[in-house]
């Protein structure tokens, strides 16, 4: 009996070491999960939907005058009197919090999960003392909780850093113990468990402290530049040639709001509408929040003005308004975890209004990231590929399903499974608003629903690689 157990254990350990970087799929070589294949005879796929063409017509701007910019200087006001920091233009977006109040919320949620897991572990350890067979389950739970925690603990908090290292040490230690002195040393495991409990209490106290700090809105000095305009191209032409946060007012009569302008890439004039770079903002949000926008427009990292963009979604209302003003191009830039960069650019990009659920229309691809939005995933073929085209799709969030996967069936909703709001078809070749995974490679097991819910651009890195950074910026199209 003992020998048999040992054999099992060895097999288990060998498997356990592999399963973090290897997907135990159905043995296929290409495991492209972006689509939801047809279950033959039980459902069908209709790719044809009404999709308006992107806004064309006259350009709002002629080419850039070559000399216009030299005379003007960008000056900045000392500080907005009422500002007190980078308060977002609309109240719903809250106050910027570069010290990580958002992270704190995530952390707190996670801490609760871990605590529950640990509590569940306790009786299991007791069981172990009686029946050594249960050791398998124990190590299994331990690995799961560790993997789960690794997935979500992606912040720079020192306390958590220490905590993570120690739990990892404990995990290694437990595995060793199980290997060598199995099964006589159950009591050691109980001690370890108690230590983990202590550490969680410490973490709880740290979170409580941060809670207190976060009661007051965090404040940063974010002077508003004197130059403003209709959008970032307008600002550029008025002399705002530094990349930073600006106030814009696309149409007279609407309220001005803050955006980040990239005034350097491809001669500038780009208005940032989406940005991911460190996972600090949760993108799994409701329809209303995607409509209004969320996240941090810009941060001051010590230079006295807000020249570093934060993670944010500008908001579908604003994106729609800006792209319907005239021909608009979009530039999607992305970066992997080794620092390689590629981009995809569309000469035409329009988001219709909310009455048509913000239908996406793009055209005129160029770039080296792959034309996922128009052609779908090149890993897939036939209908499977068509299912991953985003052009012509409506916007979906987890509480508002407008995708093309069995419309009306509440169990078949792309946004619920794939982590963010997006123009899902059935479902995606690109998922820029997906879950943020530190390090890139992730697996079916790590994903909440077993789907490729990461920050994915299939035509560059496939389904199981979550990008380090991705952003989308728009500019009025001109020659
Ligand atoms: C579509 O995907 C399913 C499942 O992945 C596969 O069985 C089928 O052969 C694919 N169809 C095509 C045309 O590649």
TrEMBL record:
Instruction: Enumerate the CDD domains for this protein.
Output: FReD
Can you provide one Gene Ontology molecular function annotated for this UniProt record? signaling receptor binding
A Pfam family of this chain: Fib_alpha
Instruction: Provide a GO biological process annotation.
Output: positive regulation of heterotypic cell-cell adhesion
What residue stretches are annotated with the Fibrinogen C-terminal domain?
223-478
* Compartments (UniProt record): Secreted
Endpoints of the signal sequence: 1-16
Main localization category: secreted
Which intervals carry biased composition (Polar residues)?
Answer: 64-74
* Residue stretches in coiled coil: 186-213
Gene Ontology CC entries for this record: fibrinogen complex
- Residues covered by region (Disordered): 23-85
Keywords for this protein: Blood coagulation, Coiled coil, Disulfide bond, Glycoprotein, Hemostasis, Secreted, Signal
Q: Which PANTHER family does this chain map to?
A: FIBRINOGEN ALPHA CHAIN, FIBRINOGEN C-TERMINAL DOMAIN-CONTAINING PROTEIN
- What is said about its interaction partners and assembly? Heterohexamer; disulfide linked. Contains 2 sets of 3 non-identical chains (alpha, beta and gamma). The 2 heterotrimers are in head to head conformation with the N-termini in a small central domain.
Name the chain's protein.
Answer: Fibrinogen beta chain
Organism of origin: Echeneis naucrates
The gene designation is fgb
């Amino acid at each position: 009996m003992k020998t048999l157990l040992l054999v099992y254990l060895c097999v288990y350990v060998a498997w356990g070491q592999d399963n973090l970087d290897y997907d135990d799929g159905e043995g296929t070589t290409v495991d492209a999960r972006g689509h939801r294949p047809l279950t033959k005879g039980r459902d069908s796929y209709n790719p044809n939907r009404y999709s308006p063409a992107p806004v064309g017509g006259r350009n709002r701007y002629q080419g850039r005058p070559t000399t216009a910019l030299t005379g003007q200087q960008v000056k900045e006001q000392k500080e907005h009197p009422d500002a007190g920091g980078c308060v977002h233009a609309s109240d719903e977006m809250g106050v910027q919090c570069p010290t990580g109040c958002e992270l704190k919320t995530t952390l707190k949620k996670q801490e609760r999960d871990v605590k529950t897991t640990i509590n569940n572990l306790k009786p299991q350890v007791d069981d172990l003392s009686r029946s050594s067979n249960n050791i398998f389950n124990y190590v299994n739970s331990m690995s799961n909780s560790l993997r789960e925690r690794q997935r979500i603990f992606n912040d720079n908090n020192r306390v958590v850093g220490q905590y993570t290292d120690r739990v990892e040490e404990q995990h290694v230690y437990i595995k060793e113990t199980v290997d060598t002195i199995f099964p006589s040393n159950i009591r050691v495991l109980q001690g370890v468990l108690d230590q983990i409990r202590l550490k969680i209490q410490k973490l709880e106290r740290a979170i409580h402290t941060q809670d207190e700090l976060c009661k007051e809105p965090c404040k940063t000095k974010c002077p508003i530049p004197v130059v403003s305009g209709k959008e970032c191209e307008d600002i550029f032409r008025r002399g705002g040639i530094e990349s930073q946060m600006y106030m814009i007012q696309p149409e007279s009569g609407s309220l001005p709001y803050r955006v980040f302008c990239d005034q350097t890439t491809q001669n500038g004039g780009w208005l940032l509408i989406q940005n991911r770079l460190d996972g600090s903002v949760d993108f799994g949000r409701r329809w209303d929040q995607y409509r209004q926008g969320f996240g941090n427009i810009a941060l001051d990292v010590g230079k006295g003005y807000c020249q570093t963009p934060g993670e944010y979604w500008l908001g579908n209302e604003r994106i729609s308004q800006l792209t319907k003003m005239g021909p608009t191009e979009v530039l999607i830039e992305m970066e992997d975890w080794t620092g390689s960069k590629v981009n995809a650019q569309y000469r035409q990009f329009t988001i219709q209004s909310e009455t048509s659920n913000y239908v996406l229309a793009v055209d005129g691809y160029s770039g080296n990231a792959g034309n996922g939005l128009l052609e779908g995933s090149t890993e897939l073929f036939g209908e499977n590929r068509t299912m991953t085209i985003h052009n012509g799709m409506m916007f979906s969030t987890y509480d508002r399903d407008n995708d093309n996967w069995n419309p009306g069936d509440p169990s078949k909703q792309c946004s619920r499974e794939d982590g963010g709001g997006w123009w899902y078809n059935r479902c995606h070749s690109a998922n820029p608003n997906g879950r943020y995974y530190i390090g890139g490679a992730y697996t079916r097991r790590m994903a909440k629903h077993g789907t490729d819910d990461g920050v994915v651009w299939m035509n560059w890195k496939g389904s199981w690689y979550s990008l380090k950074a991705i952003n989308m910026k728009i500019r009025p199209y001109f020659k």
